Amino acid sequence: MLKGENSSKAAFTNEEVKKIRLIRATLKYTKTEVYEMYKSRISEGGFNKIWNYETYTEVAPELNTPEIAEFYKHNRISGSKNKCNKFNQE
Length: 90
Prior knowledge:
Blueprint: H1 14-25, H2 31-38, H3 44-51, H4 66-74, H5 85-89
């Protein structure tokens, strides 16, 4: 079975998933804020699986730390609106 970007059902390249996870690792944006950048390409459920490392598990595993997971577990509404737009421009 093919995984990640090699799957025929892949919504993103591995580089795009890495970008999502790098944004997540900054602890500055909520999952909802980041999802807004990609919602035209993927369902919220599919995005949640990327965000939570349920899919694309081989992409940026070093960013899947207990500290980051714990932060988002307790800070679901933290983050700054509209700041993630700068990631689209980089």
